[in-house]
Amino acid sequence: MKKPPRRRSRCAVRGIVLYEEILPWTSRNLSWPTAWSRTAYPRLPLTAENAAAIPCRQVLGAYSVSFTRQDDTVLVRHLSNVLGLPYAAVRRNIRDNTEGAQAQHTIATDVRRSTVAYIQEHAGEFEGVYVVDRTEREYPFGTLACHVLGYTGTVTAEQLEAQEAAEQTEGSITYESGDVVGQAGVEAQYESLLQGVRGEQTVTVDAGGNVTGQVGEVPARAGTDIKLTLDVDIQRACEEGLEYAIGISKQFGYPEARNGACVCIDCTNGDVLGLASAPSFDPSVFIGGISNDAWSQLNSEESGNPLLNRVIYGQYMSASTIKPLSALAGLEYGIYSGTRTTNCTGYWTGDGEAYGKYCWLHSGHGTMTLEDGIVYSCDPVFYDIGHDFYYSKDNPEGLQEMFRRWGLGSTTGIDLPSEQEGRVPNAEWKEAYFSDYSDQDRAWNPGDMSNIVIGQGDLLVTPIQMVCAYMGLANGGKEYTPHVFLSALSRDGAGEDAYRYNETGSKERLTAEVEKEHLDLVHNGLKRMIYEESASLAAHFNSLPVTVAGKSGTGEKAGEDPYGWFITYAPYEDPKYVVAAVLEQGGFGGSSAVYAVRTVLGQIYDAPDTLSPSGEDHTR
Q1: What angle do CA 525, 527, 532 make, to 5 degrees?
Q2: Nearest-CA neighbor of 176 among 366, 38, 346?
Q3: 523, 476 in Cβ contact below 8 A?
Q4: 8 Å CB contact between 181 and 159
Q5: Could you tell me how many helices (H) and strands (E) the chain has, helices first?
Q6: How far is CA 40 from CA 20, 59, 99, 246, 290, in A?
Q7: Per residue in 391-450, pLDDT tens?
Q8: Which of 173, 225, 346, 393 lies 20 to 30 Å from 497, alpha-carbon distance?
Q9: Rounded to two decimals, what is the model's pTM?
Q10: Going by DSSP bridges, is the β-strand pair 260-266/105-108 parallel, antiparallel, or unpaired?
């Protein structure tokens, strides 16, 4: 992510995210008695379902425009004493021409009223200093939806260079040094809508370049108001549920649990209703410019890289949440039928005694069908699938093909920046990726297949990819592109939608063609998993007024505690919502991530989970 250079003011007028710029005056030619300046119009707001607009507060700011007095030590010292700022800081702010030589240079913001009164009463002592009432954004909801909204900052040198190199098209925005632009989240994704069109002023200047008057003006135009798909109550539940789940993991012996993601999607259209990533960050630290120390902390491993949106950027082993897709692959290619069984003794030797693998339940599950394998997450059932795909003459990569059919290995197209594509490995990938290794070590082998078939090995997915895959399962194969943009509002003040996402409000991403009877088997297995795999797990869902289907997962990573997954869709009979959570080093999915998901479902159906967590469910 790009670090926004220090900015002395960034303001809000209304809505969730709205900015008002200082007037950045820029002299085109100081040798003439007139000069042109450009004025930036406020960025316009973002709103969400069930959300009151985040209000602004009035802030008092002192400004100096008389840069010819920047060496007036008496004035600078006087300002320093009155404002309670270091002498060097006041002088530096007066000298700062980032926003143009004729700009009002911000000296201080959020000045006490008593200080403002003193400056106004002693105006003769502060020649060239002006006090201006302004507004500045406030964040009464704190960190809520910070990874969706993102943040803004002064345009960087790299961005200006990229602009110079890029071909300018009609209607494109041309930035200048000092402009505030979106740097992450929706602020960056929809910069072209939120950013207004500059106006111009014609001003008179004296021989020293000081502004002496205004002789003409072309008004700026506002940007566009944006409405988001987020439901604030569900968004809050995602964040609180994730925090709750992390706390439970710590309580039951996983001290490294602190990072994770939780997301809820309307599977009938792809609307993102809630999206949370932990750790979160307070967007208010970017108001007025962020310090180097704060920036370093937000991007450090020690603090968990809070700026990362793990829903779209985090790439994880999928663990057992992949097993429904593995089952569909086995069914589709005739590798493992619905009537075939595997005898799980707790230790599988299908690739030979020397390459034996444990089931997560070392005591064994006994005789398992494919549907049972989904319900109880029996590893040997899926080891058999991976083994038989490896030795298949006709479809040795049928498993990978099925994963890709449901969108894995590709970005989902969500309208947020920095989405990662994950990875679906195969023989060709392995040979290229490990190019420095010996031919034997680079060769694809049965162990690779038995790893990815249970969501381990070199397979990588993002939470948003898995939510989309389960959206497809819930919809009979159809996946919609996930999106946070709902509509752009008209400028006539009526508050009506001028444009909806993709004009219709949704966009089909893909349709995974599979046999209905195969999907029915998977659906039934996912429902049974919630209510039959574990009595303690089922107890948390029995209190909901709807039937739920879902899958847990527990990923393993060398040298770290297990990664917990849980994904559900509901209602089972007519799905509307898909909810997923992953906790890094949070322990078993059935005793960690499940609590984040259950919190969200509790909010949706007004049925909070009243059971105390036990930490005993080792559902994989």
Answers
A1: 85
A2: 38
A3: no
A4: yes
A5: 21, 23
A6: 8, 19, 11, 43, 21
A7: 999 999 999 999 999 999 999 999 999 999 999 999 999 999 999 999 999 999 999 999
A8: 173
A9: 0.84
A10: unpaired
